[in-house]
Amino acid sequence: MFKKIFILLNFILFFFEIPFIFSPEIKKHSFFISIAVSILACMRFVGVIGLKNERKWGMEILILVPGIMSALLIYIRNTGFFLAAELLVFFFGTLVAFFSYKQLKRGI
Prior knowledge:
Elements: H1 2-21, H2 24-27, H3 31-52, H4 56-75, H5 81-100
Helix pairs in contact: 1-3, 1-5, 3-4, 4-5
C-alpha cells in the first residue's frame, strides 16, 4: 500500500520537475545545474519503473534522487514548495524502504 503511494508521489514529482528544468530559477544559476536537474528527473523516472517492477535498485534510486535534489535545491538557495516536497518524499521513502526492502527482488 505505502509502496504504491510512494511510486505515485515520485511519478507526480517527475511531472513537476519537467517544467522546473526550464524555469528561470534554474536557468539563472548555470547550465550545469539545469543538466543536473534533468539527469535527476530521468533517474527518478527510471526508479519509478524499477520499483513498479519490484526491484531493489528502483527503491535505491528513489531514495537517492530526492536526497540529492534536496541538497541541490539548498545549494542554489531555492526554498519553497519543491524543497518541502523533495524532503517529504525522501523521508517517506526511507520509511517505506525500512519496511519493504527485503521483499523486493535483486538484479535487473
